[in-house]
């Protein structure tokens, strides 16, 4: 309760929340506002925004409604962001918790693997995964999750390292509790706030990764992704730059919203830093 | 004699939302040349805030509201920034509690001391270097040349504090403010640093404002004493007068809470042992990849001790003596490399993990840190009930039991649904005690259970412990660095140094007629002890 | 010497990491539909099953998976990255041709991001919660949220198409036949927009970290000591805070090296730079798995090298390193 009130006090956090709610509203209302397939031909290609009242944001080079693609794209971006973040955080927590709590050889092995993933440029690994497993939307989402877990794993490990030597954890052990119960019921709730905050960073990066992949036409071509549209607009960049510009603004706003909410959460959950 | 530094009705306001409106309220103090004025008080008394206010280094949001700080005829509360900077270091210098964090880790000691000269004087580099060496010699650091080139992490705690003192005295300041300068140090090191400060103060005639919570230290060093409580000075006067005939009830209570070093008359002790440690060994290996650069620390080198049933065995020693490792080996938080622990005939170290979890019922631990030892996200009742629940007691029964235990340790049973942060340090230690007692153990291992508490709270918790021992027939292993505390509760004592027990026996015998030279040194170092200043406190 | 030995040890410790990467990738590519021979056959316009079998025997693809893995690792030890069927050249040659552009771009972006991140971070921390801080922090957030390829495209529209100040893409004007200093200038002008585009997100990260660390270090005890010594605020910052605050920044370079290489894929594609990143993209599109694997290997080695340099820098900044902390 106190955290929520603290959150609502930050102006930046409020802007972020409003922006995020707007994007969510777009995603939810897409089917109702633009019931037609956003990737179907809607009218004459390359009409500038405002030129035709039917197409508020104009049409792209294949004559598809840009506004419809923006609304439906919000869905794709949020969905991919959420699912990929969920995957990354889940793997990260399990790996980081086990490594941090047990230490020793478990830590050594898990950290070597984490290091291996971090040494590989994540976008390159993403390319490899897409090259091997194809580029339908499920694969892309899972692949983004799989390349994003090392950072949350390291964060979780660091939290566990500092928490496991705390006396309340030792007390649990002297009470005779089992390891799994200590890890997930006693330590994890204490380690969670920074991880939740970090999840916003993972989500922002996931959205950016998907859009970059789609821009390179390596993502699923059959969904209305903002990145796809920017890639498409590149062919007419010199004259009809709005085709690329509009979806870019949408990505920027979404990522900004996620980051601001994350920062607001951070200020609310780590009261020590507030007022600085 | 005119005052060198005078605080005149100094009032410091805390930001809105703090636990009280003022950190200091109308504090009036005088510091004369050639004297050591001790400002003593418990945590939250505002004693450190007074030091910051004099230096005008108050934390953001905290400001001087009224009153004056007169130094050398000048009101510092009205001085501009440039004037203040000229006074800091050169006129009034300061040393702090934790020398490790008070020194910049990335710059050498010599560089940091030399900085004093570089900012306040126009001396050439070679002259500065020479002066730094002279200073380091004066504070009696072994091998000053090496120390000047060293970085803070390469020196011991005592050496670091000596370096801090050298830095503070570099420009011969008129006033030295020492903010708990020995609190983070071991007792023998503390004795040396106190002697050094005393000695330098005599030779240079510096006036020292010495802030401390420890009446032993006060007895050791003070000419005059000011006692602070809740931001006010409640009593001040010559040291002998305040220590021997305190007027204010708060001073009287504080002094009464300081445990005497002499042991109470011995209690009868059973012959039958309940806990036997045999040749416990533990070696730590840190760092080093593939065996290179590895450092080996022998924390325990074959410790053998016996705890008779119903007795309290004190284990005393300085940091690094291995006493905490010993406590954790007994309850198997740490797996020893060798040796044996027998609890009423059961070989604890031979037990499999599952069996050990069962055996934990019989031996429980109380921890040092009242803030770190309770999971901040669980209600305190649940914390106490957790142990029995792990061992199969139904939740409802365990919670009812938790309420009984709360009453037993002197807490309100209705408070079980609150969170740890709603309790004070002393209350949290009681909760920790209740948690350990919930499993009805035979043996309690207490690791510095009162070290983090203020002296008045310390006394209450120790009384409770003695009471429970009698009522429940507990046997206790009591780890502490504080000999006064040990003297109050222990029947037997073992003195540890570098992982070995150097001396053990009934506490009365060990403390009055110590046989080992280290024990003798340890007892002589206790601040305010008879050996140092006859009749001062005891 | 001590520092070098330490960093060398860290370098040796990264060998197992490299091994994990290579084995993991090799096994991953076993899952890929089609192999080098399929790619070759497709290039040749199809062929009989016998030719395919012969080719597989020639490339050692008829062996068991562990034997292939062994062969592959042994070839890597000899720095033989295999043959690119698409480019008709050894993969190592193809990569070496593309490496300079990427290295140049990375160095430029990193320097840009580090320098301005540091300066802006310090400025923001010194004016914390006042308008310069608010402005800088907001800019940081916006930069962080900007997709780099989109920023690149918009920069092209503005600076290359409308204002015509800078070239829209490519590494240099080959037709102009420039040499010496003129050529350097030409390349530099081609790299301005890519550098900004790639560096923007890292600038945002660095400035945020620098601001946060500065504020953190300012609360430490030794800063109070410095003030109690009579130092003025500027000297407190330059002599005591800055060096301590630099430590996390330096660590971050190592952690972000991989991300930056990944980012160059997109940026090089936007600006048609003949670098490693674009090569990776082309390899994926043309299913040239040999080349892709080679690029990943070289990138991993690059990241490890950057981390080696970071270790050296860190050990120079922090005397505690190597003392077993």
UniProtKB/TrEMBL annotation, chain A:
It comes from the Bacteria. The chain crosses the membrane at residues 12-34, 78-103, 123-147, 195-216, 241-262. It is found in: Cell membrane. InterPro entries: BP-dependent_transpt_permease, MetI-like, MetI-like_sf, OppC_N. This is ABC transporter permease. The keyword Protein transport applies. Gene3D superfamilies: MetI-like. Residues 74-262 form the ABC transmembrane type-1 domain. Keywords: Cell membrane, Membrane, Peptide transport, Protein transport, Transmembrane, Transmembrane helix, Transport. It is a multi-pass membrane protein. CDD domains: TM_PBP2. Belongs to the binding-protein-dependent transport system permease family.
From TrEMBL, chain B:
It comes from the Bacteria. Residues 5-255, 275-523 form the ABC transporter domain. It is a peripheral membrane protein. The keyword Cell membrane applies. Gene3D superfamilies: P-loop containing nucleotide triphosphate hydrolases. InterPro entries: AAA+_ATPase, ABC_Ni/Peptide_Import, ABC_transporter-like_ATP-bd, ABC_transporter-like_CS, Oligopep_ABC_C, P-loop_NTPase. Keywords: ATP-binding, Cell membrane, Membrane, Nucleotide-binding, Transport. CDD domains: ABC_NikE_OppD_transporters. Coiled coil: none annotated. It is found in: Cell inner membrane. The keyword Membrane applies. One of its GO terms (molecular function) is ATP binding. SMART domains: AAA. Belongs to the ABC transporter superfamily. This is ABC transporter ATP-binding protein. It comes from Plastoroseomonas hellenica. The lineage of its organism: Bacteria, Pseudomonadati, Pseudomonadota, Alphaproteobacteria, Acetobacterales.
UniProtKB/TrEMBL annotation, chain C:
This is ABC transporter permease. Pfam families: BPD_transp_1 (PF00528). InterPro entries: MetI-like, MetI-like_sf. Its main location: membrane. Belongs to the binding-protein-dependent transport system permease family. SUPFAM superfamilies: MetI-like. It is found in: Cell membrane. The keyword Transferase does not apply. Residues 99-314 form the ABC transmembrane type-1 domain. The chain crosses the membrane at residues 103-123, 135-161, 187-207, 245-271, 291-310. It is a multi-pass membrane protein. The lineage of its organism: Bacteria, Pseudomonadati, Pseudomonadota, Alphaproteobacteria, Acetobacterales. Keywords: Cell membrane, Membrane, Transmembrane, Transmembrane helix, Transport.
């Amino acid at each position: 309760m106190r955290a929520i009130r603290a959150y609502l006090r930050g102006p930046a956090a409020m802007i972020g929340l409003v922006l995020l709610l707007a994007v969510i509203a777009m995603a939810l209302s897409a089917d109702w506002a633009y019931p037609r397939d956003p990737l179907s031909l809607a009218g004459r290609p390359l009409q500038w925004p405002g030129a035709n009242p039917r197409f508020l944001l104009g049409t792209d080079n294949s004559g598809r409604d840009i506004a419809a693609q923006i609304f439906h794209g919000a869905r794709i971006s949020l969905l991919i962001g959420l699912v990929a973040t969920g995957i990354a955080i889940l793997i990260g927590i399990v790996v980081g918790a086990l490594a941090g709590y047990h230490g020793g050889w478990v830590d050594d092995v898990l950290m070597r693997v984490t290091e291996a993933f971090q040494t590989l440029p994540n976008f390159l690994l993403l390319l490899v995964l897409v090259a091997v497993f194809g580029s339908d939307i499920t694969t892309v989402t899972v692949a983004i999750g799989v390349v994003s877990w090392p950072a949350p794993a390291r964060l979780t490990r660091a939290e566990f390292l500092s928490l496991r030597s705390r006396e309340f954890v030792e007390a649990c052990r002297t009470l005779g509790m089992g390891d799994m119960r200590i890890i997930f019921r006693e330590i994890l709730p204490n380690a969670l706030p920074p991880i939740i905050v970090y999840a916003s960073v993972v989500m922002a990066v996931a959205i950016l990764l998907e859009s970059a992949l789609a821009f390179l036409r390596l993502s699923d071509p059959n969904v209305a992704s903002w990145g796809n549209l920017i890639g498409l607009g590149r062919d007419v960049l010199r004259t009809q730059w709005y085709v690329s510009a509009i979806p870019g603004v949408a990505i920027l706003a979404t990522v900004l919203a996620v980051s601001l909410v994350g920062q607001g959460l951070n200020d609310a959950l780590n009261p020590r830093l507030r007022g600085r | 004699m005119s005052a060198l530094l005078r605080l005149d009705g100094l009032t410091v306001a805390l930001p809105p939302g703090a636990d009280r409106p003022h950190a200091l309220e109308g504090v009036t103090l005088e510091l004369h040349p050639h004297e050591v004025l001790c400002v003593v008080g418990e945590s939250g008394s505002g004693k450190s805030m007074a030091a910051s206010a004099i230096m005008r280094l108050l934390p953001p949001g905290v400001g001087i509201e009224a009153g004056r700080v007169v130094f050398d005829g000048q009101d510092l509360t009205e001085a501009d920034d440039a004037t203040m900077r000229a006074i800091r270091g050169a006129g009034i210098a300061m040393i702090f509690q934790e020398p490790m964090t008070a020194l910049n880790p990335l710059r050498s000691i010599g560089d940091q001391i030399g900085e004093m000269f570089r900012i306040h004087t126009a001396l050439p580099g070679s002259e500065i270097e020479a002066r730094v060496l002279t200073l380091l010699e004066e504070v009696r650091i072994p091998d000053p040349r090496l120390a000047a080139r060293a970085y803070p992490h390469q020196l011991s705690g005592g050496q670091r504090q000596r370096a801090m003192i050298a830095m503070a005295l570099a420009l011969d300041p008129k006033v030295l403010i020492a903010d708990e300068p020995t609190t983070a140090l071991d007792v023998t090191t503390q004795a040396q640093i106190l002697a050094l400060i005393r000695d330098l103060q005599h030779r240079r005639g510096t006036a020292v404002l010495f802030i401390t919570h420890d009446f032993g230290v006060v007895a050791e060093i003070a000419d005059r004493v000011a006692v602070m409580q809740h931001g006010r000075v409640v009593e001040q006067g010559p040291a002998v007068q305040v220590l021997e005939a305190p007027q204010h009830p708060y001073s009287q209570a504080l002094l009464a809470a300081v445990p005497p070093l002499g042991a109470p008359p011995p209690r009868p002790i059973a012959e039958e042992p309940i806990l036997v440690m045999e040749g416990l060994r533990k070696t730590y290996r840190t760092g080093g990849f593939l065996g290179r650069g590895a450092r080996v620390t022998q924390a325990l080198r074959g410790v053998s001790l016996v705890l008779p049933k119903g007795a309290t065995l004190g284990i005393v020693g300085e940091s690094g003596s291995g006493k905490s490792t010993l406590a954790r080996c007994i309850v198997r938080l740490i797996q020893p490399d060798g040796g044996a622990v027998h609890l009423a005939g059961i070989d604890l170290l031979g037990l499999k993990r599952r069996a050990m979890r069962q055996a934990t019922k019989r031996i429980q631990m109380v921890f040092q840190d009242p803030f770190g030892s309770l999971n901040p996200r669980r209600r305190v009742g649940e914390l106490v009930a957790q142990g029995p629940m792990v061992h199969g007691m139904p939740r409802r029964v365990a919670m009812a039991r938790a309420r009984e235990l709360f009453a037993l340790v002197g807490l309100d049973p209705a408070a079980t649904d609150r969170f740890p942060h709603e309790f004070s340090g002393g209350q949290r230690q009681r909760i920790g005690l209740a948690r350990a007692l919930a499993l009805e153990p035979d043996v309690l291992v207490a690791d510095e259970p009162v070290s983090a508490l203020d002296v008045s709270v310390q006394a209450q918790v120790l009384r409770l412990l003695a009471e429970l021992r009698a009522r429940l027939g507990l046997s206790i292993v009591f780890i502490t660095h504080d000999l006064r505390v040990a003297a109050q509760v222990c029947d037997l004592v073992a003195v540890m140094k570098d992982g070995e027990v150097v001396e053990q026996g009934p506490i009365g015998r060990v403390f009055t007629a110590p046989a080992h030279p280290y024990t003798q040194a340890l007892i002589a170092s206790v601040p305010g002890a008879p050996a140092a200043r006859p009749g001062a406190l005891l | 010497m001590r520092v070098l030995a330490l960093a060398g040890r860290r370098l040796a410790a990264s060998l197992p990491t490299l091994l994990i990467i290579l084995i993991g990738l090799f096994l991953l590519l076993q899952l890929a539909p089609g192999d080098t021979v399929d790619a070759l056959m497709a290039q040749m316009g199809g062929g009989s099953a016998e030719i395919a079998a012969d080719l597989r025997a020639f490339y050692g693809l008829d062996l068991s998976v562990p034997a292939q893995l062994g062969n592959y690792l042994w070839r890597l030890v000899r720095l033989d990255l295999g043959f690119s069927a698409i480019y008709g050249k050894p993969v190592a040659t193809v990569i070496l041709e593309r490496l300079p552009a990427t290295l140049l771009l990375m160095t430029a972006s990193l320097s840009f991001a580090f320098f301005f991140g540091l300066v802006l971070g310090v400025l923001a921390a010194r004016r914390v919660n006042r308008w310069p801080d608010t402005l800088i922090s907001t800019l940081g957030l916006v930069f962080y949220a900007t997709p780099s390829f989109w920023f690149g495209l918009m920069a092209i529209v503005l600076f290359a198409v409308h204002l015509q100040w800078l070239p829209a893409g490519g590494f240099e004007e080959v037709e102009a036949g420039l040499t010496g200093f003129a050529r350097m200038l030409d390349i530099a002008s081609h790299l301005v927009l890519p550098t900004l585009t790639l560096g923007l997100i890292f600038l945002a990260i660095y400035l945020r970290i620098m601001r946060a660390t500065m504020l953190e270090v300012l609360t430490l005890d030794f800063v109070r000591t410095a003030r109690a010594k009579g130092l003025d605020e500027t000297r407190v910052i330059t002599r005591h805070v800055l060096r301590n605050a630099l430590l996390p920044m330096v660590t971050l370079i190592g952690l972000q090296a991989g991300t930056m290489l990944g980012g160059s894929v997109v940026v090089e594609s936007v600006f048609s730079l003949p670098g490693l990143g674009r090569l990776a993209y082309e390899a994926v599109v043309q299913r040239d798995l040999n080349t892709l694997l080679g690029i990943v290997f070289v990138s991993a080695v690059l990241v490890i090298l950057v981390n080696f340099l970071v270790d050296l820098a860190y050990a120079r900044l922090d005397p505690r390193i190597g003392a077993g902390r």
